[in-house]
Amino acid sequence: MDLSIVVLNYRGKNLVKELLKNLAELDLPYQYEIIVVDNASGDGLKEALAENFPQVKFVANSKNLGFAGGNNRGIIEAQGQYIMIMNPDLAILSKAIEKLYQYMEKNPQVGLAGPRLINADRTIQYSCTDWPDWKLPFFRRTALGNTKAGQKWQDKYIMKDLDHYQNSYVPSLFGACLIFRRDVLKKVGLLDERYFMYFEDLDWSRRFWENGYKVTYVGEAEIIHLHRRESAAESLLKSLFSKTARFHIISFVKYLLKFRGKKLPVIG
């Protein structure tokens, strides 16, 4: 098996169906499988797949395991030499998967890679990041990000100075779409399920670097991600009490505690 594609669903049945149609239309030149994992959505996805996509393997979780736990269930089932994890809110209108696959084939030193994600209006969706510091939840989740200091910090964090149309080694990649080698999991391990939501991708990227594998932003591969960030423009008080912000802060604290006292990996 060349490639396994893992799609994680949580109450997004229609998005999953559209992505599966999209993948079928690509006519990928590989022996591949698609594994859809459902985080106890109760949205009728199992029946919809059985009727319209019987070739897709379906994994049902008895409860919502979050991003890490849900994707890990699919990764464990995967048989491909390469594995891709995908959010269902993606639209692939180009040869992005082939470009990512070929990049991995030509660069054996790379363990993890991700495409250039763009918004529906084709603007860049900054999806690779520098290593964060303690300011992250304040500048990324609240209106403090709109201050001069906040904008400067964010520009560095989301690597605005990077040429996002070229391939580059980066500290970390967002988890909306990633490709990796199945055999590296023996050293790197699965996504850390201590994070229910947020920072699983940062943690994982860091562990790839720590175990001697490079992490690459493949700017030559373009995928639309229909994602909208929440909370960033809210007041400090409102955002700190929102559910998404609480997950964000809790996960960030877990990340800081896990890697406390450890040196940051050298990129390159």
UniProtKB/TrEMBL annotation:
Q: Which residues form the Glycosyltransferase 2-like domain?
A: 4-188
Q: Which domain of life is it from?
A: Bacteria
Q: Species lineage, top-down?
A: Bacteria, Candidatus Komeiliibacteriota
The protein's matches in InterPro entries, at most eight in alphabetical order, are given as:
Glyco_trans_2-like (IPR001173), Nucleotide-diphossugar_trans (IPR029044)
Q: What is this protein called?
A: Glycosyltransferase 2-like domain-containing protein
Q: Which CDD domains match?
A: GT_2_like_c
Species of origin reads Candidatus Komeilibacteria bacterium RIFOXYC1_FULL_37_11
Q: Which parts of the chain are coiled coil? A: none
